[in-house]
Amino acid sequence: MRGCCTINLTKRGVFIMAAQPITVPFVSFRPMERELDADLRAAFARVLDNSWYIEGKEDAAFEAAFADYCGAEYLPLIHIPDPTRPH
Q1: For residue 85, what is the enclosing H or E element?
Q2: pTM of the entire structure?
Q3: How far apart are CA 29 and CA 69, in angstroms?
Q4: Which whole-number Å values give the CA distances from 43 to 3, 31, 34, 67, 79, in the listed order?
Q5: In this predicted model, what pLDDT tens digit does every residue of 70-86 receive, in sequence order?
Q6: Which residues of 2-33 are buried (b: 16+ CB within 10 A; e: fewer)?
C-alpha cells in the first residue's frame, strides 16, 4: 500500500500518521475479561506477593512462553521510551 502513511522517527519514538482518517470501531473486552478474570487476578496476586515487578519469575515465564509461541529461542528486548522523562 504505497502512500498509506507517513512514518516519523523522533527522540520520543515512532509516530505513524495515516494519509486518510481511520475509523476504529468500539470493541468491548468485557466477555474476555470475565473469562480471564480468575487467571488475571491470580497472576496479579503472585506478582504482588513476591514484590518483584521487573525481571522476576513471572516476567521470565512470560518471555519463555511468548518466545515459544513465536517459534523463537528468545525474545529481543524492546524499549519504549517514556515521553515524560528527558533522554
Answers
A1: none
A2: 0.45
A3: 23
A4: 43, 19, 15, 19, 23
A5: 888 877 666 666 667 66
A6: eeeeeeeeeeeeeeeeeeeeeeeeeeeeeeee
